[in-house]
Amino acid sequence: EKKGVKLAVYVFGIQLALNVVWSLLFFGLQNPFFAFVEIVFLWIAILVNIILFYRISRKAGIILVPYILWVSFAAFLNYSVWVLNI
């Protein structure tokens, strides 16, 4: 179990870093294309995190579901901004 916890925390850290990078790409550099590519990786990291957390604690996995829903909506908005600015 300890190995699973370490991996889950590691993936959580990656996911947090990806979240910061998305903000820098989208808002800082104002580059919706690269921000969209990055948010796809962020979404995958959140999904992996949900699975890993769920294996450790059902509640811990479920509590991340609103977060992936929010990032899905943000990805849709990001994609829309990118397409409208092509």
Structure explained in plain terms:
This protein is mainly α. The chain has one domain. It contains four helices and no strands. The chain has helices at 2-28, 32-56, 58-62, 65-84. Helix 1 packs antiparallel against helix 2 (32-56) and helix 2 (32-56) runs antiparallel to helix 4. The longest helix is centred in the first third of the chain and has 27 residues, at 2-28. The radius of gyration is 14 Å and the shape is elongated.
Tell me, briefly, the overall form: elongated
Distance between the termini: 48 Å
The rounded Rg comes to 14 Å
Mean pLDDT: 96
Helix-strand category? mainly alpha
Number of domains: 1
Query: How many helical elements?
Result: 4
Report the uncertain regions: none
Helical fraction equals over 70%
Number of strands: 0
Order of helices and strands: HHHH
Strand content: under 5%
Largest sheet: none
Give the topology, please.
Layout (H helix, E strand, L loop, with lengths): L1 H27 L3 H25 L1 H5 L2 H20 L2
Notable characteristics:
single chain, 86 residues, mainly alpha, elongated
Summarize the structure.
The protein is an all-alpha fold. The protein has 4 helices and no strands.
